[in-house]
Amino acid sequence: RGARLTDIIILVVAADEGLKPQTIESINLAKEAGVPVVVAINKIDKPGADLEMVKRALADHELIPEDWGGETICVPCSAKTGVGIDTLLDMVLLVADLKQLKANPDRLGVGTVIESHLDPGQGVIANILVNAGTFNRGDAVFCGSACGKIRTMKDSAGKNVSEATPSMPVQITGLDEVPEGGQTIQVFPTLEAAREKTQAFKLASSSKSVNKFEQASLMNLMGRLKTGTLQHLKIVLKADSNGSLEALKSSLQKITAKDVAVKIIHSGIGAVNESDVLMAGTSAALLIAFNVPVVSNATDTLSKSKIEFITDKVIYRIIEKVESIATGMIDIKYDQVLVGEGKALKIFYTGEKMQIVGLSVVSGNIQKGAQLKIIRNDRVAGSGKVENLKEGVYEVNQVEEGKECGIQYKGESRVEVGDALEFYMTVERK
């Protein structure tokens, strides 16, 4: 949210430490938001400072320093001694001039809520940043489900002010409800007009989920694919190790579709956290987790959202899913859910399009009517359907993990002894 809100990002990197995971995440957020970056290489006064090491790391993440022939301004500085700080500020002003970053102060104010809370003494307090126009004390404002008149307004130093102009952060009171962070706040000519807008917002919210990242839903992505407005299938990717991450990135970037290119906007090692969920939601990206869990504080956000979340322990299954989305060959109403895995132990009969296969259930369960994939040498060698299922001499509908059974398999490809078998059932998407 901060990356999308700002006009220029100052990325602070320690000269003696280089890029950390949080720094890389910030770089990815900046690139996705399309915001210019000025790099402040801090702590140059420390004995272990290595400017070239930092620049190499920046170049690896597509931030090519100017003295290397790129466009990224890098300023060596020290927060402790003050060396380079004036140059840094000059570079920020230079970028602002080059990008012609301007806003009209002579209009009704429009801003963004950074954060808000309820204070027992003052009521609702909202910290906002003015994007355009001017906010005045006493103005009627609308902000999602909240509205009211600005009762007090303080600047970043805590001093009372009567007006706030573009790029100015202020703290206001006077709203009747606590707005959500990231919401737009607007000045209206009258309080009645602001209340009407709020009522319309609440009415729309009652029939449609708000802030559930609907733009990242599979239905939305497929709709954009059909209308030709989806040029990049964006992905936020988390994996359990560097090896897995590189293998996945390489495979995903090789996926070819007629009108859509796969673009990994952020990747990292470790569990899916709330920052990953928010980035996928705000960027309308797929969220992919390979063999990693979702941390507790992100689980609730993800479960309430409509983000298309793909999680698996097998690389080819992830690739298949992404490929089916990129090519538009996925059912947005129904999904195939892996219910069990088995191993072929013996082939009892092979007909023209039918086999009877003896197998052990390695995990989950096998169900009559399940779709079947044959996995050989870590690749899909064929697919079909379980027509009949027997445990011993008895016909059954389901066989659990740890047991052996026989299936009557219908399909074009033949099962061989030693093949891994995956069983899927079709379920309606929620």
Topology, element by element:
Elements: H1 2-5, E1 9-14, H2 21-33, E2 37-42, H3 51-60, E3 73-76, H4 85-98, E4 110-119, E5 123-132, E6 135-136, E7 140-143, E8 146-154, E9 163-164, E10 169-175, E11 184-188, H5 191-207, H6 218-227, E12 232-239, H7 242-253, E13 261-269, H8 274-283, E14 286-290, H9 296-304, E15 309-312, H10 315-326, E16 334-350, E17 354-367, E18 371-376, E19 379-391, E20 394-395, E21 398-400, E22 404-411, E23 420-428
Question: How much beta, percentage-wise?
Answer: 35-45%
Structural class: alpha+beta
Largest sheet: 6 strands, antiparallel, barrel
Show unreliable segments.
none
Distance between the termini: 27 Å
Q: Within the largest sheet, what's the order of strands? A: 4-5-10-8-7-11
User: How large is the count of helical segments?
Assistant: 10
Helix content: 25-40%
Assembly state: single chain
| Mean pLDDT over all positions | 91
Radius of gyration: 28 Å
Shape field: globular
Tell me the number of strands. Answer: 23
Describe the structure.
With 430 residues, the chain is α+β, with helices and mostly antiparallel strands. Helices cover 26% and strands 38% of the residues. It is built from 10 helices and 23 strands. The strands form 5 sheets. Strands 4-5-10-8-7-11 form a 6-stranded antiparallel β-barrel.
Relevant terms:
430 residues; alpha+beta; 23 strands; 38% strand; globular
